[in-house]
Amino acid sequence: MSGKLTSIVGPMYSGKTSALLSLVEIYELGRKKVVVFKPEIDQRYSAEFVVSHSGMKTRAFLVKDSDALKKRLGQLNGSIVHAVFIDEVHFLDEGIIDVVKGIIDQNIDVFCVGIDMSYRQNPFLVTAQLMAISDEIVKKRAVCHNCGEYNAVLTYRTTDEVEGDIDVGGMEKYVAVCRDCYRVLTRKRV
Fold first, then answer.
1. What ranges do the domains of the chain cover?
2. What is the rounded distance in angstroms from the CA atom of residue 68 to the CA atom of residue 57?
3. CA dist 126 to 8, 26, 45, Å?
4. Which of 25, 40, 48, 88 is catalytic?
């Protein structure tokens, strides 16, 4: 029986990493072997742990790219692994798609967490491709930083710096907003 792929997506501050950490705990309570990965580009809170904005954490392997993740899994020397968790998957390269397919073909469940759209409302291709092959997609919302309603589905960049879609940061650069507030805020900047 194949494993299953679950994608947990949404804007920043929507509880994606908290959901991942809860699932890690559930697997561990069930005495299942899990492996957790995070891209090395994201060291906002820790280099050794996946950490939620609320402070929950679990130990993780830092990986540079999909090849490094595949290699690290191969180094487990036949250890039985029941689930693989990948945080901030949008920071990884498109090779992760084939790596994930290979993992689920080995009867291992995979949970990928990532932002689905950039602050420019462009889909992150890696996240979109993973969603397309997922068995389950969990789309999270956040509380809108602007109006306070629980309907934020977008990430808004608060600084005027012009960067690419990949730019690691936290509250000093980004907030979660609803579509209405995003439209109002972007009009003010033009």
1. 5-140
2. 22
3. 13, 26, 23
4. 88
* Residue 9 near residue 114 (C-beta atoms within 8 A): yes
CB count within 10 Å of CB 30 equals 10
Q: Which residue has the tokens 């039985």?
A: 80
Beta strand 57-59 with 49-51: parallel, antiparallel or unpaired?
Answer: antiparallel
- Domain covering 5-140 in this structure, CATH number: 3.40.50.300
User: Distance between the two ends of the chain, CA-based, in angstroms?
Assistant: 53
Task: Please report where in the chains the tokens 């979109």 appear, as a residue.
Answer: 128
Give the type of residue at 180: D
12/124 Cα distance (integer angstroms)? 13
pLDDT per residue as tens, the chain (190 positions): 789 999 999 998 999 999 999 999 999 999 999 999 999 887 666 678 777 777 777 889 999 999 999 999 988 866 789 999 999 999 999 999 999 999 999 999 999 999 999 888 999 999 999 999 999 999 999 999 999 999 999 999 877 766 665 555 555 568 999 999 999 988 865 5
**What is the rounded CA–CA span in Å between residue 66 and residue 88?**
13
Cβ(177)–Cβ(154) below 8 Å: yes
> Are residues 176 and 154 in contact, defined by beta-carbon separation less than 8 angstroms?
yes
Q: Residue 88 catalytic? A: yes
